């Protein structure tokens, strides 16, 4: 499956994505809101898991490519989280993104996420899509807000896969319902 926006192509993974994914995965600035950076081998495992999850679930995170140049700039998509420990709001479908530093501040995350929200609500018929991040990740929270997602403080949680005393353990949860999505589209 391929989704297109004005400036982006959201497409399946290919072997050529490993090098830029690996470069992105070792960048401490890109990975500062993740528990740790990833080696090239770990990036390969992540990519293989995303491919397998797409085959099993029909959705998962996939590459974001610039239409103008064909350059890989990160990944985005919808996913059903499958951690070893459940999230307090499971089951759910999340929208998420991670972009190379060179792609920051250009609206690509919002543009790609909007396409995935449209796919989730209009094609898959989902009733709700969530997004979550470390409480300190203000840039991603701004994207969530631009998408019309809503945070309620009582939904904030400690991520079950992060040690409780780690600075990235506190997480915020944003939600968007299909009704709110449809209302925003008709304005």
Question: Short summary of the structure?
Answer:
Pfam families: Acetyltransf_3. With 187 residues, the chain is an alpha+beta fold.
Written overview of the protein:
The chain has 187 residues and is an alpha+beta fold. It has one domain (3-186): Gcn5-related N-acetyltransferase (GNAT) (Aminopeptidase). The chain is built from five helices and nine strands, in the order E-E-H-H-E-E-E-H-E-H-E-E-E-H. It has helices at 18-26, 40-57, 108-123, 138-146, 178-186, and strands at 3-4, 8-10, 61-66, 72-79, 94-99, 128-134, 150-151, 157-158, 170-177. Strands 1-2-3-4-5 form a five-stranded antiparallel β-sheet, with helices on both faces. A hairpin with a 5-residue loop joins strand 3 (61-66) and strand 4 (72-79). Helix 1 packs across helix 2. The protein is globular and about 40 Å long. The model has no long low-confidence stretch (mean pLDDT 95). Keywords: Acyltransferase, Transferase. Its EC number is 2.3.-.-. It comes from Roseibium aestuarii.
């Amino acid at each position: 499956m391929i989704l297109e926006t004005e400036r982006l192509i959201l497409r399946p993974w290919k072997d050529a994505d490993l090098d830029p994914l690996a470069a992105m995965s070792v960048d401490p600035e890109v990975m500062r809101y993740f528990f740790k950076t990833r080696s090239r081998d770990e990036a390969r495992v992540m990519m293989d898991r995303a491919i397998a999850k797409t085959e099993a679930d029909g959705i998962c995170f996939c590459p974001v490519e610039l239409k103008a140049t064909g350059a890989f700039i990160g990944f985005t998509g919808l996913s059903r989280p499958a951690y070893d420990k459940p999230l307090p709001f499971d089951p759910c479908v999340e929208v998420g993104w991670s972009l190379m530093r060179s792609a920051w501040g250009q609206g690509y995350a919002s543009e790609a996420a909007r396409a995935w929200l449209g796919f989730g609500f209009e094609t898959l018929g989902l009733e709700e899509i969530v997004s979550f991040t470390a409480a300190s990740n203000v840039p991603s929270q701004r994207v969530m807000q631009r998408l019309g997602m809503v945070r309620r403080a009582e939904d904030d949680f400690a991520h079950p896969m992060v040690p409780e005393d780690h600075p990235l353990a506190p997480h915020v949860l944003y939600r968007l319902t299909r009704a709110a999505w449809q209302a925003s589209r008709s304005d």
